[in-house]
Amino acid sequence: QVQLVESGGGSVQAGGSLRVSCAASGITSRGYSMGWFRQPPGKEREGVAVINSDGTTNSLDSVKGRFTISKDHAKNTLNLQMNSLKPEDTAMYYCAADRKWRGSWSSTDEYRYWGQGTQVTVSS
Question: Does 101 have pLDDT greater than 90?
Answer without folding.
Answer: no
